[in-house]
Amino acid sequence: MIQNTINLRPRYGEVDQMGYVYHANYVSYCHQARTELMRNLGIHDQVLEENQIMIPVISINLRYLKAARYDELLTIRTTLREMPKTRCQFEFEIRNEANEKICTAVSEIVFVDSISRKPMRVPEIVKKVLSTYFKTETE
Q: Which of 55, 72, 65 has the alpha carbon at shortest distance from 15?
């Protein structure tokens, strides 16, 4: 299992008239958290692009438990529980300043060849990094 945590503060333009974070912004927060987990592992978007690898999101499911507010410090914990094959599933837990769970989410990406636009198994550059955290099928 791999975990990473980031902190962020919702900006004024991300809240609605009631002062609550607009629901669609949680998707962006999860995307940012996933990107930071991958970056901390050395798997940068730029490196993937240079290797003709895209990682489109194919599903995301969010469960809102409590509203986040403007400028409130949010903590987002991202978890990758298993070695991906073609698809890769990330779990998110968002907590507010009072450490209350306010949202959970699950996002699924797929590895795609940027030229053929066809799904591919986990690329070797990703597999090499993740294999230090997960046992591979041959072990």
A: 72
CB 114 within 8 A of CB 52: yes
Domains and CATH numbers, the chain: 2-130 (3.10.129.10)
Could you tell me which residues come within 8 angstroms of residue 115 by beta carbon, excluding any fewer than 6 positions away? 52
Active site residue 16: yes
Tokens 């930071």 locate to: 36
CB 30 within 8 A of CB 104: no
Please give the Cα distance from 26 to 15 (Å, whole number).
Answer: 11
How do residues 101-139 score in pLDDT, each as one tens digit? 999 999 999 999 999 999 999 999 999 999 999 875 444
For residue 24, how many other CB atoms are within 10 A of its CB?
9
Q: In sequence order, which residues have a C-beta less than 8 Å from that of residue 98 and are 6 or more positions away?
A: none
Burial of residue 111 (CB within 10 Å: 0-12, 13-18, 19+) is buried
pTM (2 decimals)? 0.91
